[in-house]
Amino acid sequence: MSSDLVIVYHRQPYEEVEENGKTIFRDNKSPNGIVPTLKSFFGTAQHATWIAWKLADDPSNPEFEKVVEINDNHGTYNVSRLPLTEAQVKSFYHVSSKEAFWPILHSFKEKFNYDPVDWPTFREVNWAFAEAAAREAGKGARVWVHDYNLWLVPGYLRQLRSDVTISFFHHTPFPAADIFNVLPWRREIVESLLNCDIIGFHIPRYASNFVAVANSLFDLDDIKTVKVDPELVSDGTALSERRVPQSIVHQGREIAISSASVGVSAEYITARSKDPEVMAKAKEVRTGMGDVRLILSVGRTDYTKGGVDQLESFERVLEDNPNLRGKVKLMHVSVSADRKMSAYARTQTGIEETAGRINGRFGTLEWQPIALISRAIPFEQLLSYYMVADVAWITPLVDGMNLVCKEFIAARSDGDGVLVLSEFAGAAVELHSAVITNPFSHRSMDNSIVTALDMPEDERRTRMKELRTAVFRYTLDAWADEHKRQFEAKSG
Q: Can you list the alpha helix ranges (DSSP code H) found in 118-203?
């Protein structure tokens, strides 16, 4: 059966596990996250298909199950699985996407590595995704493609199917033209994206950057802009914009430019934070801390997250403020990424060495200033840390959005706690009431954490109330509703 909705994403929409020698497809454990939100779109379709890749030793094996039917709480839908070899995955994802595209998207030109990129394989994999979408899509279907590792899918799909409505969403930053145009394949990438009907970004700045890039490579006509919602304009935020592109015209086709940030399931997180078991765990953590105040930092091990910079700031704060020694603890959660990638391995080593040096310098038998955790923490446990943290310290050098800070806010149903947030995180455009800091400035970083620790209760609560209002406004559901509206407008 052909589908009137096709979602193209690199991840499969379930947890695939082995039980008693049998493969089981489990629904995602938590409804909080991008995959469950995308699956919620299935309710807008008569029949839907999800396209993803799956590792296969032999893609030609006739026993490989290319299409599976899933029946879960989102309904019945198909998952079309592309069999990719380990070599293909390494080439198109770990090398091309992570070593070439990722640093450019985050404006780290010095980390860009052109030499190992196998562009023919990247094209090959993207063509396979496009073919699968063309095969599964019914006449006039909606096809929603996600993220930069599938940049070429819209162009290929348009060649195969001129009748479908194509939308593309970027889950990363989109850099300025002088950064993006470092990519040798820039024209091919942007030309593919200009085959979309809708192109979506988190915040106005990224949308503006994309249009500037496209205009540097192609003759665009009739670039329409509108004023940015005043709620998203702040003079104190580096990523703030006052106008945003709404649509562009290329070769006679109008392309909608969408700016809508991914949020969190705020109501779900708040409800979980009130669960008696979670509250009991939070109380246990708080009791175990004694009179020591908790600073919480959570992120992936990635050079874009600024983990070492944050640790060095904490070291300076302890050096300059002896009264804080023995009175504060930094819980630095840096979930280890793929160590097979040298850039991530170096970042992890840097974090471990810096934390070790600080603990060795300031630690005592009774107190260690840093608790370094390099593994993923179960969400329920993480909630308990959110609930007792005096300060959430989220200071990436660059971040497309950052959902950790939103999770922290949603978990604080008690109305207390302080968020220190980098102005180079997309979320800072929405969360003006955080203590906004510049992670490239020692003075700004150091002062922000001291300000947060010294903040009086009435100010903490006023700021948190404003932050929660924003998080409950820009939710996952709100993001999904905006894209449903865009599809409806384009589909007629």
A: 119-136, 153-160, 177-180, 186-193
Which of 337, 368, 339, 336 has its CA nearest to residue 355? 368
* Cβ proximity of 395 and 421 under 8 Å: yes
Residues in CB range of 30: below 8 A, 6 or more apart: 36, 268, 379
How many CA atoms, within 13 angstroms, populate the side-chain half-sphere of residue 17? 8
How many C-beta atoms surround the C-beta of residue 164 within 10 A? 21
Contact 479, 260 (CB under 8 A): yes
Contact 391, 420 (CB under 8 A): yes
Rounded Cα–Cα distance for residues 415 and 82 (Å): 46
Helix (H, G, I), strand (E, B) or coil at 438: coil
The span from the CA of 440 to the CA of 309, in Å, is 8
290 CB neighbour count, 10 Å cutoff:
8
Domains identified in the chain and CATH numbers? 3-263+476-491 (3.40.50.2000), 266-473 (3.40.50.2000)
Beta bridge partners of 392: 296, 419
The model's pTM is 0.95
- Report the C-alpha gap between 397 and 300 in whole angstroms: 13
> Which among 317, 301, 309 has a CA at the least distance from the CA of 397?
309
Spatial contact of 221 and 250, defined as CB atoms under 8 Å apart: yes
Q: How far is CA 175 from the centre of its chain?
A: 15
Q: In angstroms, how far apart are the furthest CA atoms of the chain?
A: 71
Asked if residue 277 lies in contact with residue 417, where contact means CB atoms within 8 angstroms, the answer is no
pLDDT (tens place) for every residue of the chain, 492 residues total: 799 999 999 889 988 877 877 878 877 666 567 888 888 888 888 999 999 999 998 988 988 989 999 888 778 899 999 999 999 999 999 999 999 999 999 999 999 988 899 999 999 999 999 999 999 999 999 999 999 999 999 999 999 999 999 999 999 999 999 999 999 999 999 999 999 999 999 999 999 999 999 999 999 999 999 999 999 998 878 999 999 999 999 999 999 999 999 999 999 999 999 999 999 999 999 999 999 999 999 999 999 999 999 999 999 999 999 999 999 999 999 987 665 666 788 899 999 999 999 999 999 999 999 999 999 899 999 999 999 999 999 999 999 999 999 999 999 999 999 999 999 999 999 999 999 999 999 999 999 999 999 999 999 999 999 999 999 999 988 998 999 999 999 876
Q: How far apart are CA 321 and CA 341, in angstroms?
A: 38
**Tokens, residue 279:** 């509250």
Compute the chain's Rg from CA coordinates: 23
Q: Report the distance separating Cα 245 and Cα 256, nearest Å.
A: 9
What span, in angstroms and rounded, lies between the C-alpha atoms of 154 and 127?
10
Question: What SS3 class is residue 5?
Answer: strand
